[in-house]
Every structure is written in C-alpha cells, then in structure tokens.
Amino acid sequence: MVQTNLNPDFALSADLKDLKDRISRQEQVDLNVAGLHDVAILSSPITNQALVWNSTAQRWVNANIASTALSGVVPVANGGTNISSYATGDVLVASAPGVLTSLPDTASGNALLSGGVGVVPSYGKVGLTTHVSGTLPVANGGTGAATFTSGAYLKGAGTSAIASQQVSLLQTFRVLCLLLKVALVLRLVQDLSR
C-alpha cells in the first residue's frame, strides 16, 4: 500500500502521473488531502467489496459488504424497505408515513384502485359508474355520444359516434304501412292454407 499526502495547492501534473502509475500497478492508494479524511482508492475491487468508514482507525477501509456492512433487514430510514420477503407480483406501498407494506397480488382481471389520498390502494374490478370518466368511443364498445334526444332512436354511423334521431311523422307512417302490409300478407297466407 502506498500512502500519499497531498496539499490542496499541489502541482497536479507530477502528483497525478505518480498516482496513475501506482493505480496501474494495482496498488491500493490512500490520498490524504488537508482537511479531509483519508480516502482509499481500489484499483481492482473484488465482488461485494466497497469502502466503509472505520471509526476506530478513523479512515476508509475495504470491506466485504455481504459479511460486514449489511445484515438483516434494512430499515426504511436507511433506504431499505424493512421487509424481509415478498411474493412474485406483490407491490410495495406506503401504509403509513415511513412504513412500507407488501400488497399481495390477486386474481387476474383485477386492477389496482386508488383508495384516495392517504389510503392504501386495493385490487378490485373497475366500476363503470364510479371509475370511468369521459365518453367511451365506438372503437372501445361505447356509443361515442354523451347524450341522446328523448324519444329518439339510435342510428349507427360506422366508426363515428352513434347518432340520436327523432322519428318523423312520415317515417312513422311508413313503418305503419309496412306493418299493415305484413299483416295483410300473413292473413292471405292463412286464408290460402285453408
């Protein structure tokens, strides 16, 4: 290990070249900069190795994270979840300020629904009267129209919105004539079959 003391006003070119040479030889290099704690630079770190502050030695040291720095469940205050296990499909949600909870997965066909501000969401079916806003277009199985005229019939318009159309007196007369013709034909067929 090579120890180097650097003054904040040092000549960069010579000291950095020396530092680069030492790192290229895969030596551990400690830098002491006036007013700062020692900083260790690893040229060839190994798996699960990181820099950890050793308060006894008052310096940064190499440590194996898997065996020394982390053990158990990491609390929320330290950037963890405070949860030791969860199942596939679970969703982490805040159940209270600073508290994460695992929301278990549910049967297919359910959606994650907001319970409102400050309430944990839940899974359920999407209510067409409570959860849908706007007008459902024809392409998605709706009418594409928000209102209809009272007493009118619905008239398709291909992929455009369904139209509401009033029945005119002439249309009513035509329908009545058609029904009368059908009734007469049925009566004639009945009479001929006797």
List keywords for this structure.
single chain; 194 residues; alpha+beta; 3 domains; two-stranded antiparallel sheet; 3 helices; 11 strands; 27% strand; rod-shaped
Provide structural commentary.
The chain folds into three domains: 2-69, no CATH class; 84-124, no CATH class; 135-194, no CATH class. It contains three helices and eleven strands, in the order βαββββαββββββα. The strands form five sheets. The chain has a three-stranded mixed β-sheet with strand order 1-2-3, covered by helices on one side. The longest helix is centred in the last third of the chain and has 24 residues, at 169-192. Helix 1 (12-24) links the parallel strand 1 and strand 2 (29-33). The radius of gyration is 39 Å and the shape is rod-shaped. The chain has 194 residues and is α+β, with helices and mostly antiparallel strands. It is 22% helix and 27% strand.
What is the compact description of this entry?
This protein is an alpha+beta fold and 194 residues long. The protein is built from three helices and eleven strands; from the N terminus they run βαββββαββββββα.
How many DSSP H or I helices?
A: 3
Uncertain segments: 6-12
> Order of strands in the sheet with the most strands?
1-2-3
Q: Compute the number of structural domains.
A: 3
Strand content: 25-35%
Shape: rod-shaped
Order of helices and strands: EHEEEEHEEEEEEH
How many DSSP-defined strands? Answer: 11
Mean pLDDT: 76
Mind telling me the C-alpha Rg? 39 Å
Secondary structure class reads alpha+beta
Query: What about the largest sheet?
Result: 3 strands, mixed
C-alpha end-to-end distance: 119 Å
Q: Fraction of residues in helices?
A: 10-25%
